[in-house]
């Protein structure tokens, strides 16, 4: 009889003990899954401890219903990472553990430890041309499927017939591999590496010398400086040792383009990991990480939790990107946890960006990260200059100055592409009543609703509520409703009239909704046909558009006067990244930035001195104002139907803070003394999806002091009766303050 302490996916910050009858106590492993009764349900949990010394009297314990794994699904290194994450983010361990597992394992699917039969092309099969299968469409289909990836026998038989499989087997075009996964042993470089320039060479050498131990690098390379080439050449020796590599990329950056660049270089098994995969694809990728079969994994943030057998290098591309932070549930930052993972795996971590986060630059200043600069573009092209177009007192055509339009026409007629950046999707941010000034607002949020002309809807971009476009003003009944402001949909419509001779491709969340449409749009741009490309910040995410010679930044004026202390950093990143899309081919690039505030210090700083200089002065400002990264920050959010209750609940927390500070001054406990707070205050978006929103922000230069206080507050929250009347969240190192 064993007692096992189990972490369960419930919002309670505690473990649960169960008893387990077994003939073979050594068969029960920490990190394995068990099925246990919990209330009226059966839950899948993770064994976290066996026979804990402080367990209760075993007579009162319930029995484990089933032991699901003979070997742990979470090995010791991942357990280290996840328990660190649970402590750091104060998120319940059971929830952290299970969110690191693919859905099928979370649901209790048994891992098939029998030998998998994997169907894959033989070398001969790989070299064939489609013509070989002219007489058999069925064989062609299976051959093509296997060209994209190996499949398990079961997967093949789900789509194709046994006869077709046997036919390909007989011709020796495919083989059945009965080992579960064969770890790759060597790597061959398919495509020759480029001759590195001196800055790239220094960067590669630094990383390669550090292989085999934990070290941290920030690769700060202007757009087009050849960061990817540095990644590729740092990866090569890792693969040669038979070790695995993980490359984290931003959400939308994971395009076939990214994968193709890696696949062109290395002949090793590669896989991607992103939100668009089916559950069984995820499970397979998870297993390939664990078996060591996947040499390179390119994935979005949660790929960080894959169970690599032998990780040799971790890379984060576009490390400044906000999508690395999970914004709901378990709110972790993949960049910060990746550093922890690298330290556990004893391997280097390489963060790369043209516009590094202030956090990472601060870590360079603190000598925690080694700085690897790539100050120039890898090709002979210069980084494009931003030219300001002063909009004041100009007659605008659909938001565009005459000068802007003239230059756009010029670039297009020379056979180039023009990219237009406008960070607002939809047709217009609101409809206004021409008679009385009434504006269309969301019924559930303190926000306007965006007018989407194509779908004939008003859509709230905060809560996603939609409704039909009204015919009449909600206040005076007038039918004179008109769009105010401009979104990408409108810009597209108007440009089709202003510049009718060239096609337009629009890239925003609406235009890529259908599966495959992002790829299709990117392919159109890649084809090189002269065209207008209109898009939101999606355009800023690392794409390589060699035919774009002119970038027009239509309107960022609103972002110049935001209350969020990170707004300046984010805008500077966006401007630099968007500008970096210009002139990446053979022709020099140009950027036009339209603004009513050409003298604004932020614009002047970024344009005249570049992002790097801007970021360093922005850091000095953060130091003066004592904001992150100079202080650690955490934020409690409260949301509920009753605004007063939210405020009251946060006031309770705030009073505990105040009480602690006072007690600390009296007893001279230095640690707790150093936490300051702001709030409770209404959130900038006061009401969302019908709920009122309040915040309490906490700051401290002393991480330990902050976290001690958070523990105290959390234990109060568990006891407070008000906690049940609202929804609350704790966000450690919050990025989104809205
Ligand atoms: P980044 O990721 O920094 O924006 P890329 O890796 O996309 O830059 O490189 C930009 C262009 O420069 C690519 O076309 C790439 O092939 C080329 N390039 C990179 N390194 C070199 C080099 N050492 N010599 C010649 N061309 C290079
Ligand atoms: Zn009206
Ligand atoms: Zn809404």
Task: Jot down its keywords.
738 residues; alpha/beta; GIY-YIG endonuclease; Rossmann fold; 5 domains; 7-stranded parallel beta sheet; 6-stranded parallel beta sheet; 21 helices; 30 strands; 33% helix; binds adenosine-5'-diphosphate; binds zinc ion
Brief characterization of the structure:
The protein contains 21 helices and 30 strands. With 738 residues, the protein is of the alpha/beta class. It folds into five domains: 2-106, PriA, 3(prime) DNA-binding domain (GIY-YIG endonuclease); 115-180; 198-374, P-loop containing nucleotide triphosphate hydrolases (Rossmann fold); 385-425 and 487-622, Rossmann fold (3-Layer(aba) Sandwich); 632-732, Alpha-Beta Plaits (2-Layer Sandwich).
